[in-house]
Design a protein that fits this description.
It contains 20 helices and 14 strands. The protein is of the alpha+beta class. Helix 10 runs parallel beside helix 12.
Length: about 675
C-alpha cells in the first residue's frame, strides 16, 4: 500500500469504514431480532393407537345427584357394568362456586384406555353413565328440563391458570338432560409453548417446552324411547364418552431468530464483506498466527505494559532486620534502575511512531485533512500513553540515575553485605550504561553480570531479607536480559550452570565401573561444559581445561575392563558433541554426516557387560548435555547473527509479528546456505 495513489488510499479507508459500519448495524439488527423474536407455529399430526380415558367432571343443581351405574364396553364387544361407579368416582361432592355447586369427579388415573379399533390391541370402546337427579328440584328455577353439566379434562393433568380458566368457562358446555341420551365424542390436542428466557431455545437448541393438553368434544342427543332397555331404576338420563379420533394435533412454537442462526447470518454477511474488499483491493495477507497465538502475545504484552504503568504497585519491602533508612536507599536505587529500563523501552519502541513522514507532493484539501486527522489522533493517543506510563516521572528518575552514582552506605548491614550490594548495583548499571549511554564495555564486569547471579550474603542478614533482595535483583535481571541483551533465557542458562558447578555435582557410578574410566568420563563432561558456559555466560577461561578439551577424543585411554564396543560408543558420542560445539564456536569445518548422526542418534546402546545403572547414568548425562547445546548454544542470538550478518530493517508500517517471521525465515535460509553450501561440499 506504500506506492498506492493517495486518492485510492483514501477510497480504501472510506470503503473499509463504510463496510464496517454496515456490518455493525447488521449485527445490531440480528441482536434486535433475537430479543424481540415472535415464535412461529408448527402443526404436526400424531397417529395414536390408544388414548387415556379423560377425567370427567359431572355437576348438577341439587345435592341428590348420583351416578347409578357406569358401563365399560371394550372394542371386542365386552361389557362390564359397575353399579354406583364407585371404583372410579372420587368420594364427596366438589363445589366450584358460580361454575358448579354439586360436582362429582370420574377419575381413571390412566389405568384404562380407549384403543383404536383398527389396531390389534385390547382396550375400551365406550363408557356409559346412568345418572339420577331430582327433576322437580332441578327444574324449580330454570326454564328447561332437568339436566346436569359434563366437562372432560386431560387425565392427571396439573392445570395451569389459563387451562383452569378455560375449564371453568366451558363447564356448562355439555349437558346431560332428563330422558335423553347424550353421546360425547372427543379428540385430543397439545400446545407446546416456549417459556420466557429459555436459554436452550434462544441459543438454537431444542426448547424446554411447556406442554398444555386440550380436549375437544362433539355431542349428539337422542330421546329415550317408551321402554328403555336395561337401565337402572330411577334413571333420569344417560351420557356416554368415547374417542372420536386417534389423530392428535400437536402445535409447537418455534423461534425464528436464535443465536446460532444469527451467527450463520453474520458469517454470511462477513463473507460478502470480505469478498467485496477482495474484489476491490485484492486478497488479504495470510498469517500463521491464530487467535490463541495472538491472545497469548496480547496477554503477555498487557502484563509487561501493566508492570511499566503508573498502576503497578510500588515497592513494599517488609524487611525484618534492615532499617528504614537503608530500606529507603534500596527502594530509591531499585526505582531508578527500573525507571531507566522503562525509559529505554519507551524511547526505543515509541519514538519511531511519533516521527512518521506525512509529507506529500500533493497539496490538496483532502491530504491536509487526512494529515490533520492523523496528527490529532497521534497527539490524543500519545497523551493517554504518556499518562499511563507516567513518562514525566520516568524521565525524572532517569536523570537521577545518570547523576547519582555514589557508593551506597548502609547502617544496618556489615561491610561484606554492603560491598556485595554495591557490586551488584554496579554490574547492573554497567550493562544498562553500555546500551543506553554507549559507554565502553568492561569484559570482566559484563561477564560477572552473566555468571554471578546469586548474591551470597553473610549469616548476619536474615534469610527473609536475603530472599527479598535476591528476588528483586532477579526481576531486574530478567528485564535487562530480555530488553537489553536480547537473551530472555539467560536465567535458565545460569540455572543449568549453577546446578553443575555450585552444587557439588558428582557421578555416582556403580562399583563395576573402573576408577580410571570414571575419571576420564567425568573429566570429559566437565571440559565440554566449561567450554559451553565460557561462551554462554563468559565464565573465566581455564587454559588447562581448554587444552585438554582440544585433544582428540581418540586419545582417550579407557581401561581394559571396559568393553570395546562401549569404548567406541563413548568416544563417538563425545566426538559428535565436540564437533557440533566447535563448528559453532571455533569455525571448525562442518561435517554433514556427523551433524545428522548427532540429530538422530539420541540414545547410546551399550553392551550387556555394562551395569544398567551406569548405562542409565551416562545416557542421562548425555541427555542433559544435549539439552544445553540444543536449547542455548544452537539457537543463541549471537550465533544466529553469524548466519544473518545484515539485519533486515523493515518500515514501521509492517506488523511486528510479520517482521519477526520474515527475519526468522531468512536466518534459517542463510544458515543452510552458510553451513551446507558455502562451507561444506556435499
Amino acid at each position: 500500500m506504500k506506492d498506492e495513489p493517495f486518492k485510492l488510499h483514501i477510497f480504501r479507508y472510506f470503503l473499509y469504514t463504510l463496510i464496517i459500519i454496515i456490518y455493525i448495524l447488521y449485527l445490531c439488527y440480528l441482536i434486535y431480532n433475537i430479543v424481540t423474536d415472535t415464535p412461529t407455529l408448527k402443526v404436526d399430526r400424531i397417529f395414536l393407537n390408544e388414548i387415556d380415558v379423560p377425567d370427567v367432571e359431572i355437576c348438577g343443581t341439587s345435592p341428590d345427584l348420583k351416578i347409578l351405574r357406569c358401563d365399560i364396553e371394550t372394542n371386542n364387544n365386552g361389557y362390564t357394568p359397575i353399579d354406583g361407579c364407585n371404583k372410579y368416582l372420587l368420594p364427596g361432592i366438589i363445589d366450584y362456586g358460580i361454575f358448579g355447586d354439586y360436582c362429582l369427579t370420574f377419575k381413571a388415573n390412566k389405568t384404562i384406555k380407549f384403543v383404536n379399533p383398527e389396531s390389534s390391541m385390547d382396550g375400551l370402546r365406550k363408557i356409559g353413565f346412568y345418572f339420577y337427579e331430582n327433576a322437580t328440584s332441578a327444574e324449580a328455577k330454570t326454564l328447561g328440563i332437568a339436566s346436569l353439566t359434563i366437562q372432560l379434562t386431560p387425565p392427571g393433568n396439573q392445570m395451569d391458570k389459563a387451562t383452569l380458566s378455560e375449564f371453568r368457562l366451558q363447564l356448562n358446555f355439555i349437558a346431560g338432560m332428563a330422558n335423553y341420551a347424550a353421546v360425547v365424542k372427543f379428540k385430543t390436542s397439545t400446545y407446546r409453548s416456549i417459556l420466557p428466557g429459555d436459554a436452550s431455545a434462544i441459543f438454537g437448541f431444542n426448547p424446554n417446552y411447556h406442554v398444555t393438553p386440550n380436549i375437544e368434544n362433539y355431542i349428539n342427543y337422542f330421546p329415550f324411547n317408551n321402554n328403555p332397555y336395561d337401565i337402572p331404576a330411577g334413571t333420569t338420563g344417560y351420557f356416554s364418552i368415547a374417542a372420536g379420533s386417534f389423530i392428535q394435533e400437536q402445535t409447537s412454537e418455534e423461534r425464528s431468530n436464535t443465536i446460532l442462526s444469527s451467527i450463520a447470518s453474520a458469517g454470511g454477511a462477513f463473507g460478502v464483506m470480505a469478498g467485496t474488499l477482495v474484489f476491490f483491493f485484492g486478497d488479504f495477507r495470510l498469517s500463521p498466527w491464530g487467535f490463541v497465538h495472538r491472545s497469548h502475545t496480547l496477554i503477555q504484552s498487557s502484563k509487561d505494559f501493566y508492570k511499566r504503568s503508573r498502576f503497578y504497585p510500588d515497592y513494599e519491602f517488609k524487611f525484618s532486620q534492615i532499617s528504614e533508612e537503608d530500606k529507603a536507599l534500596l527502594v530509591n536505587e531499585f526505582r531508578k534502575i527500573r525507571n531507566t529500563i522503562n525509559y529505554q523501552l519507551y524511547y526505543q519502541n515509541d519514538i519511531e511512531e511519533t516521527n512518521k513522514d506525512r509529507s506529500s507532493h500533493e497539496n490538496s484539501t483532502i491530504r491536509r485533512l487526512y494529515n490533520w486527522l492523523l496528527d490529532t489522533n497521534d497527539r490524543f493517543t500519545s497523551n493517554i500513553y504518556n499518562w499511563l506510563l507516567n513518562t514525566t516521572y520516568i524521565e525524572k528518575m532517569f536523570k537521577a540515575y545518570d547523576a547519582d552514582r555514589g557508593y551506597l552506605k548502609f547502617s544496618s548491614m556489615d561491610e561484606n553485605d554492603e560491598r556485595l550490594l554495591n557490586d551488584e548495583f554496579n554490574k547492573i548499571r554497567h550493562v544498562i550504561d553500555i546500551y543506553l549511554l554507549n559507554i565502553s564495555k568492561d569484559p570482566e564486569k559484563f561477564a560477572a553480570y552473566k555468571y554471578e547471579r546469586k548474591i551470597k550474603f553473610s549469616n548476619n542478614l536474615e534469610n527473609g531479607d536475603k530472599k527479598l533482595l535476591n528476588d528483586e535483583f532477579h526481576k531486574i535481571r530478567k528485564l535487562i536480559d530480555k530488553y537489553f541483551l536480547g537473551t530472555p533465557d539467560l536465567d535458565e542458562i545460569f540455572n543449568a550452570y549453577d546446578s553443575d558447578y555450585n552444587n557439588d555435582r558428582r557421578f555416582l557410578f556403580s562399583k563395576d565401573m573402573d576408577e580410571r574410566d570414571e575419571h576420564l568420563i567425568i573429566d570429559e563432561f566437565n571440559q565440554i561444559r566449561h567450554v559451553i558456559f565460557n561462551h554462554l555466560l563468559e565464565i573465566p577461561k581455564n587454559e588447562k581445561i581448554f587444552q585438554k578439551y582440544n585433544k582428540p577424543v581418540q586419545e582417550l585411554r579407557f581401561s581394559n575392563n571396559m568393553n570395546e564396543k562401549d569404548k567406541e560408543s563413548l568416544a563417538n558420542e563425545f566426538f559428535r558433541i565436540k564437533h557440533v560445539i566447535n563448528s559453532h564456536l571455533f569455525n571448525e569445518r562442518k561435517n554433514l554426516e556427523v551433524f545428522i548422526k548427532y540429530k538422530k542418534e539420541r540414545e547410546l546402546k551399550f553392551s550387556n557387560r555394562m551395569n544398567k545403572k551406569d548405562k542409565k547414568l551416562l545416557n542421562d548425562e548425555f541427555h542433559k548435555l544435549r539439552y544445553i547445546i540444543d536449547s542455548f548454544l544452537l539457537s543463541e542470538p549471537e550465533i544466529q547473527e553469524i548466519f544473518c550478518t545484515k539485519e533486515l530493517i523493515f518500515s514501521s508500517k509492517m506488523d511486528e509479528e510479520d517482521k519477526k517471521l520474515l527475519k526468522d525465515e531468512f536466518r534459517k535460509i542463510r544458515y543452510v546456505i552458510d553451513n551446507y553450501i558455502l562451507d561444506y561440499a556435499v
